[in-house]
């Protein structure tokens, strides 16, 4: 699946990740192997990463079903906490995020978009349950990217009904380190 994803999106962005075994979830206690897949991401130049505050178990508490947070809700700009505990609570959050993403016809969804300020994102380039590959990004970090930018049409679930051609926003090549499922 990763190879077909690479050929379909080749030249757009490179994601270097550590994988964990399971369909949608992973455990930091299991063995890890590198995987490269392609995704589109936004990056800022000259950003230095400080050690992020760690999320507590309370940060992963929510009431189902999750709902999309819309702009200008301040939670969308709040600092997100790093995930250190890979447990059943995180798995449930990820599963619920995929459900919301598919129900709202999205291809990606971050935890802040459902009101939870942690560094988690779910993604499926096809946007259909059972098709494509479900990817979970946890604690992602941009390591490098090209200066050449591309133009494409983009929308956001937190800005419903708004789509625009975005220019000089998405790097053509990007290295992002995070955790994803196998």
TrEMBL record:
Source species, domain of life: Eukaryota
GO biological process: translation
Protein family membership: Belongs to the polypeptide deformylase family.
Compartments in which it is found: Plastid, Chloroplast
Name by which UniProt lists this protein: Peptide deformylase
One Pfam family this sequence matches: Pep_deformylase
Recorded GO CC terms: chloroplast
The keyword Chloroplast is annotated on this UniProt entry: yes
InterPro entries membership: Peptide_deformylase, Peptide_deformylase_sf
Main location: plastid
Classification of source organism: Eukaryota, Viridiplantae, Streptophyta, Embryophyta, Tracheophyta
Function: Removes the formyl group from the N-terminal Met of newly synthesized proteins.
GO molecular function, one term: peptide deformylase activity
EC number assigned by the record: 3.5.1.88
């Amino acid at each position: 699946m990763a190879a077909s994803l690479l050929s379909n999106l080749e030249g757009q962005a490179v994601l270097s990740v550590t994988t964990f075994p399971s369909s949608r979830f992973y455990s930091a206690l299991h063995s890890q192997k590198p995987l490269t897949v392609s995704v589109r991401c936004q990056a800022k130049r000259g950003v230095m990463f400080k050690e992020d505050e760690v999320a507590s178990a309370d940060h992963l508490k929510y009431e189902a079903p999750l709902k999309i947070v819309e702009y200008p809700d301040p939670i969308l700009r709040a600092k997100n906490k790093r995930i250190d505990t890979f447990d059943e609570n995180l798995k449930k959050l990820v599963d619920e995020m995929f459900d919301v993403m598919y129900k709202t016809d999205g291809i990606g969804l971050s935890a802040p978009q459902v009101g939870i300020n942690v560094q988690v994102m779910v993604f499926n380039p096809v946007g259909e349950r059972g098709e494509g590959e479900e990817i979970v990004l946890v604690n992602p970090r941009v390591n490098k990217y090209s200066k050449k930018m591309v133009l494409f049409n983009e929308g956001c679930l937190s800005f419903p009904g708004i789509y625009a051609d975005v220019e000089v926003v998405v790097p053509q090549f990007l290295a992002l380190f995070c955790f994803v499922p196998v």
